[in-house]
Amino acid sequence: MKKYLLLLLLGGLSPALFAQKKAKKSASPPPPTVVKKPLTHDVYDFWKDIPERVISNNGQWFGYALNPQEGDGKVVFHNLTTHQADSIARGEGLKLSTDSEFAVFKIKPQLEATKAARRAKKKKDELPKDSLGIYALASKKLVKFPTVQSFKLPEKGSDWVAYLGESPKVKPDTTKKAPSKRPKRESDENGYRLVVRQLKSGTEKIFPFVTEYEVAKNGKRLAFASTGADSTKTGVYVFEPATNQLTLIHTGVPKHKFKKLSFDENGDQLAFVADLDTNSKVQIRLPKLFHWKSGDATATRLADETTQPAAQGWLISSEYTPKFSKDGAKLFFGTNPKPIVQDTTLLNEEIVNVEVWHWQDTKLQTQQKVSLERDRKKSYLAMVNLIDKKLVQLGSELIPEAELINEGNSDFIVGHSDIRYSNQHWDWNPKEDAYLISTRDGSKTLLKEKIQGNARVSPEGKYLYWFSNPDTAWFAHDIAANKTIQLTNNKAVKFADEEDDHPDFPNPYGIAGWTKGDQSLLIYDRFDIWQIDPLNPSNAKKLTNGRGSKQSHRYVRLDAEERNVDLSKPMLLSTVNETTKQSGFAQLSPTLQVTKLYEGDFSVGNLVLKAKNADRYLFTKQTFKEYPDWYATDGSFKSITQVTNANPQQSNYLWGSVEIVNWRAGDGTPLQGLLYKPENFDSTKKYPMMTYFYEKNADNLHTHYAPRPIRSYINFSYFVSNGYLVFVPDIVYKTGYPGQSAYNCIVPGVLSMIDKGFVDKDKIGISGHSWGGYQTAYLVTQTNLFKAAEAGAPVANMTSAYGGIRWDTGLSRQAQYERTQTRIGGTLWEKPMQYLENSPLFHAPKIQTPVLMMHNDDDGAVPWYQGIEFYMALKRLDKPVWMLNYNGEKHGLTKRQNMKDFAVRLYQYFDHYLKDAPAPSWMAEGLPLVEKGINQHLAPAKVSGGSQLGGGSEK
């Protein structure tokens, strides 16, 4: 019997196989039981995701992309009626025709073929190209077209597709004399072949040398710009596929450029921007705005540099795509100041490059650097009345942002400006002034000043509304009456985060939307939806009743084009129980009856796909053990059918389980966290345990973590599959004491896990990234509880970090330390001791735990000199410390090869300290710079052992 148990433990014999050995011979023996194995690093590439999904309008077809993390994927067409499926290799960008009969998508070249061409140093135009696939859903017939760059399907109606790509290569006829003039070649400059193909008949219309094209939403027309050929003039064309009618609406010459083609809602009007200067070396371009409508022979020039409505010297913007009002009566376009250009006669040594940092800069120089390209392309809203052709300038440098009212149909727009408040770099809370701007004459009226929130316009334009941060309340401003109304007061009912622990204003729970006619706003509190009429806000109506049971209710928007929430129809809601973590769906009836439709021990998202013309729904659900596959049902949610099975291979691997755990912080605060356990967990054994944290995670009980390389934080599934426990504690904070708060919550949590009897107290690791990296670095200065620690991108010295810059945004870091995540609650000169006491750097001599860091030299969130400060301190103190710097990477890794490398190194590091695995060469001996990118030193060191690398745990 002992021998049998030993074989089972070693994985050498399954119970089923053992039983077969004793059983008599049978004609059909049962299949052998699969012996599961732990996850390894080589599983990442073939683990799959579903990044694209679409349901047909008739509800019969579900199309989705099924892609491995690295390699060739496919598009799948699943018949929701017959449950049969077909697939096409390497498809992406999937779209379905409005009649539900065809799927259109790109077909990518084989990944290995592309890599081989790149290894062979092929030029860009010699690399394998995308193809276009058109798939008939009913007959499963696929038609492919090579070398396609893009395609467009009308959003509504029609049965055709337009695609742009290279013409088929034709071998030259060697029997004929070569032409004296070199034929025109397709290129980005000259354009490519545009094909308009009827999906059902397969008939095609081809247009040569097209540079830009656009499809009307309803499929009535197609517009394109061509540089011309022997039988085609240069210019802009409109084509009607139904009648095969082609109209040249603007004639140009080959060097003219046309861009930003835009149709109105009905496809009866077209606008575009033209650059008619034939001198390509001119630095300042002079774009023109053109307009065409059905029945016109040619397009009309509406505005140019001489007639534009802005200040003298301004130009028509070539970066803003013209936009028609919904009713087609107005055309909105962009203007911009004449650009400042470099004197091209200067030599490099004659150019002075200097930044002047002025104390009254409205934007820091670093912010200006981040937004430089965006600022160069910045445009300001203008408008032309298409009835009388009157031009009106709406936006300005003082009121740079503009928002249309009622889809542009209104006689006004709303302008937003934060210029007056943008000098307050130490405060990240938004502030703005809002203006009412007339589309008749451009006159401006201040609607509301000093709004401390993000103001927006209701769908039909009756109200400006916002959540006021300092008031912790929702407001609406009646535009017609010019009256501000406070909708909520956050007293009897709180509409902002009840558990927020920042020394700052709490965030609102959000809104579901406005009802028809802007009659009322649907606002979320922690659990429920409230209907509030701005004309009678004191009579707020609660539509759901979830607070007593701690059940949150959120509206699920099923129509992407929906402008208003229709309370006269049943509403689909997603639900989450805060206590049990169960989630699901419910229905809110027009009589305010909430009916539970579907609920369980899983997580569902707010993304639900509904067929436009059928009672068919698709949604995802997930648990730690189950990938978020897609499921089909009808509006009753009574019959649920699984549609996808992205990762069936998971059944071959050891996985694990997760549960909620409870304990009390050092100050007595009750806390929750998650404990992940290995599969076949045995409470009588001792397991190594990883500790990971980032504020609060208990609500992620049902989140699935597919095995994948590490961007920044550890992969729970990989660790538990390899025999680790993973403990993820929640943290609550006290203003001024972020480090001590982490200690107060995490250390008692770890001790409570040890008390359960199955944690090896001498084999506990700790890992965190960014804010979690800081807390990891702080904790090892306060306790020797952990055998090894990994701190990703940690802030080590708050005094130096406080005055720094978040380089990705250019923002000052001061607000982060005073009021947001760091939670100090004051400036460096107001609370210097808190900055010092909470900085790991000043406690470095106390550290006895080995520390691994990953901090990259292009980190735009936490400057990497913070990692350097910590590394240099520990190095000087002769503490075991390693810092991984992936050159050119930012706060989290993005290059897959680097993510894979970090995964290997991180697991090697913890396996060495927590499982007594041999130290790899990079840990024992380092990696000389002369070998960077050549030898990775991942193999075990020739001479290794835990003693010379240091260790941490208290005995």
TrEMBL record:
Q: Which UniProt keywords apply?
A: Hydrolase, Signal
**InterPro entries annotated for this entry?**
6-blade_b-propeller_TolB-like, AB_hydrolase_fold, Peptidase_S9_cat
The positions making up the signal sequence are: 1-19
- SUPFAM superfamilies, from UniProt? alpha/beta-Hydrolases, DPP6 N-terminal domain-like
Transmembrane regions:
none
Q: Name one GO biological process term.
A: proteolysis
Chain ranges of the Peptidase S9 prolyl oligopeptidase catalytic domain: 740-916
Top-rank lineage group of the source organism: Bacteria
Task: Give the span(s) annotated as Disordered.
Answer: 170-189
A GO molecular function annotation here is: serine-type endopeptidase activity
Q: Which PANTHER family match?
A: ACYLAMINO-ACID-RELEASING ENZYME (PTHR42776:SF4), SERINE PEPTIDASE S9 FAMILY MEMBER (PTHR42776)
| Name the UniProt record assigns to this protein | S9 family peptidase
